Amino acid sequence: MFLARGATSLMSLGRLGTDLAIDLGTTNTCVFARGRGLVLSEPSLIAFNATSGAIEAVGKDAHAMVGRTPGYLRTVRPIRDGVIADFDATEKMLRHFIWKAHRHVGAWLRPRVVIGVPTDITPVERRAVKDSTYRAKVSEVHLVDEPMAAAIGAGLPISDAAGNMVIDVGGGTTDIAVISLLGVVVGRSVRVAGDSMDEAIAQYLHKRHDLLIGERTAEAIKMAIGSATELDAPLTIEVKGRHVGKGVPKRLEITDAQIREALAEPLRMIVRAIRETLDQIPPELSGDICDRGIALCGGGALLRNFDRLIRQETKLPVQIVDDPLSSVVLGVGRMLNDHELLKKLAIH
Predict the structure, then answer these.
(1) For position 112, which CATH number holds?
(2) What angle do CA 1, 347, 326 make, to 5 degrees?
(3) Residues 245-284: tens digit of each pLDDT
(4) Which of 245, 262, 279 is the last residue of a domain?
């Protein structure tokens, strides 16, 4: 059952502009307001003053500080691997984002909130998400599966008696699900995704080139020249960091082939999870997936040729959805407008 404070009927959801849909991601948090659309998309980061405990920055302002803060400031990522790692920081970050989303319609409002969560989240982790959100001064909290939300956001016919496969590659988790008749028939969540790719790049440069780089640099390299399969035209980038042994600044030119080598292991783990999920699909639904293919969404979908790699490994059609970064929050947002759908899909 929902917490007592959220016991009000789901049918009461619907105050124009105040109810919120949130994709609380490891890397990025998106907020959708009913009647206003997507109103916020910022990094899931918060910066504290270690001396006073005061909040110095949240979201994009905190992201600009990563790796550049003096000793008295620390940046915190409250969400790790798709779940809450820092309860207090998550509450403060959510409170800031909710205030920011509401500042033009009334900061005093206590909105009702629907949040997308990974498929394999435990009951303890679900309670942590709810409690953190309630402490951010909201009136009701409802949770839904991220892959289901992503499928809705991508426009898949989830109510049909046919299989729809969606892969949501986020920052902390990759969620894989086969959906039919408004339910997840087969689903799993692996804690290998965009952050794992960034870490793999940083480790590769450390081991192979004695170069230390930060997470922002690793992410920038991935976005600039990262790929899952060989590119038609080679790419290079100049990377700046610190030499491991000498402790001095160092410049190095890196190729797309080197970064592809760095990304090989996390990509292999994701592909293995996809294969294992396909092995569990009932035969009738397998036929549907052969015809309909796989919908790929999440920030990881933007890695060059990732769809091609999945197509090569599964022999299935793979389509990147129109707005892969926002598919989850758009799907959760649709539930704000469809009370019956939310009643059926909310996690109890």
Answers:
(1) 3.30.420.40
(2) 145
(3) 899 999 999 999 999 999 999 999 999 999 999 999 999 9
(4) 262
Say which DSSP state 135 is in.
Answer: H
User: Which residues touch 128 (CB under 8 Å, ≥6 apart)?
Assistant: 83, 84, 87
* 134 and 40 assigned to the same domain: yes
- The parent domain of residue 124 ranges over 4-45+80-149+327-345
Considering the entire predicted model, what is its pTM?
A: 0.89
162-184 pLDDT, tens digit each: 999 999 999 999 999 999 999 99
How far apart (Å, rounded) are the C-alpha atoms in residues 68 and 160? 51
Tokens of 37: 């659309």
In angstroms, the CA 177 to CA 166 distance is: 6
Question: Which residue in the block uniquely carries the two structure tokens 């949501």?
Answer: 168
| Cβ burial, residue 293 (10 Å; 0-12/13-18/19+) | middle
Classify the phi-psi angles of 53: left when phi > 0, otherwise alpha if psi is within -120 to 50, otherwise beta. Answer: left
Give the number of domains in the chain.
3
**Helix runs in 107-145, H state only:** 123-135
Task: For residue 281, tell me if it sits in a domain.
Answer: yes
Question: Which residues on adjacent β-strands are paired with residue 80?
Answer: 83
Question: For residue 133, what are the CA distances in angstroms to 30, 82, 91, 119, 313?
Answer: 14, 15, 6, 19, 40
Least confident stretch, 5-9, 206-210, 281-285, 297-301: 5-9
- The confidence band for 2, taking pLDDT boundaries of 50, 70 and 90, is very low
DSSP H or E segment with residue 186: strand 183-190
For 332, the token pair is 């959760």
CATH (domain of 224): 3.90.640.10
62 within some domain: no
